Sequence to fold (317 residues):
Amino acid sequence: MEYLDFELPIKELEEQLTKCVIIGEESDVDVTQTCKKIEKKLLETRKEIYKNLTSWQRVQLSRHPNRPYTLDYINALCGDTFLELHGDRNVADDKAMIGGLGKINDQSFMFIGQQKGYNTKTRQYRNFGMANPEGYRKALRLMKSAEKFNVPVVCFIDTPGAYAGIEAEERGQGEAIARNILEMTRLKVPIIVVIIGEGASGGALGIGVGDKVLMLENTWYSVISPESCSSILWRSWEFKEQAADALKLTAPDMKKMKIVDEIVKEPIGGAHSDRENTFEAVKSKIFEHFQELEKLSPKDLVNKRMDKYASMGVFNG
Fold:
C-alpha cells in the first residue's frame, strides 16, 4: 500500500495496529483492548482526514498509483463480455485510448476511455494515458459504429492531457479533438461520461461530451493542471496548491457550476481503498442514467444535449 503525504497519520496507526496484533500472537499478553483503541483511533483519523480534503489533496488522490483505471472498470462491469476494438483505419492503434463492446445487465454498450499503465513498462506502452490524434479518431470511429447499431456510449475519462508532441500536432491533434466534440454533440445515441481520475484540458474534452456527465468524488476536471497553471502564473510549480484552489476543479465545484450532472461517492480513503464498492456504484449509476435516456427519441436526445452545453457559462448580471 502506498501512502500520500497527508495520509501518513493513517500509515502510523496501521503500523501500530499491526505491531499490536503481532505482540498478541507471539506472547501471552492480552492486547485486545489496546488493539480496539488503535482501531477506533484509526477510524476517527481516516474520517477526519478524508472529510476535509483540499483541492490539491483530491488531485493527489486522483493520481494515486493504486487507483483503478479504465480497463479495471470495464472488466469489473462487463466481465468476459468485453470485446476490444482497435485502430482508426488511417494511422495506427493508439494504446492510450481503448474502446470496445461490452454488456451490463444484458444491455450492450460501447465503452471508450483513456488507459494509463501500472508500471514503467506499461506506462510507456500506454503513453501515460495521453492519446494521439489517432486515439481520438479511433474513439470517433467506435462512436459512429455505436450510432449505426443503436448502441449507447460510455466514456471513461482519466488523462493528464492529450499528447503534445510535435508528431501529434503534425497529424492534427487539435482538429481530432474539435471533430470529436462536434460529432458527439449530435450523436443520436445516449452518451454517459464518467470522470474516474484526471480530467485535463482537451484530452478530456475529446471524449467528454455527454447527456450525463458523472464525476467520482476524488477526481478533477479542468482546462489545465495545477502544476502547469502555477508555472504560468508564478513561474514555479511551488504554488500548485493555490492554483488548485483557484481553478475550482473538484467535483463539488463542477457540480455547482453545472458542468457535471452528478457526483459518485467514493469509499473513505478513495476508490482504490475499496474497489468492489466503487465499481458497483459506477455500474449502478451508468445503468440508472441509461434507463432514463433510452426513453428519449434520437431527436430529443440531441436537442437536450445541445441545450445543455449551450447554457454553460451563461451569466445573468
Summary: The chain has a mean pLDDT of 95. The beta strands are 83-84, 97-104, 107-114, 153-159, 191-200, 212-216, 220-222, 262-264. The CA atoms of residues 120 and 192 lie 31 Å apart.
